[in-house]
Amino acid sequence: MSQRIFRTGALLAALLFASQCTKKEEAKPPAPAAAPAATAPAPAAPEKKAADGSQPAIGAPFVRVPLGLDPDLNIPKDNPLTPEKVELGKLLYFDKRLSKDVTISCATCHDPKRGWTDNQPVSAGIHGGMGTRSAPTVINSTYYLLQFWDGRAKSLEEQALGPITNPVEMGMGSHDEMISTLSNIQAYRPLFQKAFGDPNITKEKVAMAIASFERTVLGGNSKFDRYSNGDKTAMNESEIRGRELFFGKANCTRCHVGSNFSDSDFHNLGVGMKKPKPDWGRYDATKEEKDKGAFKTPTVRDITKTAPYMHDGSVATLEEVIELYDRGGEPNKWLSEKVVKLNLTAQEKADLVAFMKALDSSPYPSVEEPKEFPQ
């Protein structure tokens, strides 16, 4: 994560930076107005906050970042964020012609109307084929250091290409087949020209456009954010008690930390480990024994809209999520040391759920499907 550095002199700044890089992030409520250093090549946007506390994204001032979120959207240097790329990416995100049988788009499994997921335990792809993991939400996915439940993709750009050729998702035989399909849609060429200065369609450009669109799906300005920003009427008594539990006794910030409430790390909670053939999660990507059964920490923001929960969709409600954590997960050889019994009372469990609900965005980051697609 980016660190905020106050420059009071060149030498002091360097010393502070070196010191800061050696410290782990403290488990405390995220600062609503943190302003880390830019990763994009463009100069940092000036802090011009609107009445709702939103501010321009660093390197992409046309994007408004909601109150409570980091304005650094992790924009890659080789894929600067532009309105033209975002608009093209939106079309590609919803276009079912990127699938083999023209029935599945990115939005099929990551539907803006369903929490940017599909509210199913596991997702269905072409010809009714079923996947093995629950579709993670796109909301605030730009803040993750790695993508997918097992972290096998290093960026949103890399992630965008995966489902297109997955045989049980969008089912294209190859990325070349996808490029051929799009190249035969004449109206797409001027849009690629506008976005990239070149009408030629490549898989890299498709990935950069879709990733650019996904990078703008931001959820914040929750009741918690407004409360933390000084509006002490934003949360009720149960939500406030839940907040104290989240950052205190329950210590949920062992993993759910930062402005996106995720450490972008991987942990074994024991979910699914009793199956005859468990999903090994992060281990599939690293082949390291310690990563068996570990999955990425999801954001808690807008979590009320993304049920069912866990990588396999096996936990139906937030109440059941709390029960899982309260009993210290499911015992197994690789259980994360950060998962411990909480011994919460019934009231504390209810308050913790109330707080998580107070992390819903206002407004929710909804996007309408385009009425027309390039022909």
Account of the protein in words:
There is one protein chain. The chain has 12 helices and 4 strands. Strands 1-2 form a two-stranded antiparallel ribbon. It has a two-stranded antiparallel sheet with strand order 3-4. The protein is globular, with a radius of gyration of 21 Å. It has 2 domains: 132 residues, Cytochrome c-like domain (Cytochrome Bc1 Complex, Chain D, domain 2), CATH 1.10.760.10; 135 residues, Cytochrome c-like domain (Cytochrome Bc1 Complex, Chain D, domain 2), CATH 1.10.760.10. With 375 residues, it is mainly α. Helix 2 packs antiparallel against helix 6 and helix 9 packs across helix 12. The N terminus is likely disordered.
DSSP E strands, number = 4
Compute the separation of the termini in Å: 41 Å
Going by helix content, strand content and strand pairing, the class is mainly alpha
Amount of beta strand: under 5%
Write a brief structural summary:
The chain is mostly helical.
